[in-house]
What we know:
The chain is of the alpha/beta class. It has 5 helices and 7 strands. It has a 7-stranded mixed β-sheet. Strand 6 and strand 7 (135-141) form a beta hairpin. It is globular, with a radius of gyration of 14 Å.
Amino acid sequence: MNEVTLAEDDLHILCQELKNILQDRYVVLLQGDIGSGKTTLVRHFVESFDTTTRVNSPTFSLSLAYDNPHYGVIYHYDMYRKSLREMLELGLLDMLMQEGLHFIEWGDENLGQILKQNGFQVIFIHITPTPSHHRIYEVSHE
């Protein structure tokens, strides 16, 4: 596991590291409390390729997709209002089979285990705010 503490202005450092790791059909599970910066991380990652793309939270739409020159498409899902069972019934595994890179907010260890059992490459990023308005990013890849 790698851990780094960054201010939002320095997220480009983490985004570059992720670009070195992430490949097509990887699934990134983002964990952290409300307001910890899950959507902010996805926004910085997507915008690091193209500053004209606007990234929003998929909380009410369940998923969003962003065209990307490197991955084809970056998919962004939000499980905040859905249980793992509901997401699986909605076809999450089929959605994750699409070519591209997949970020899932509120993805937990149970989802990670299911994904690994189904052959997906999974990366966990746990985000913790600090009192100094920085974030601790714990990145683990098995």
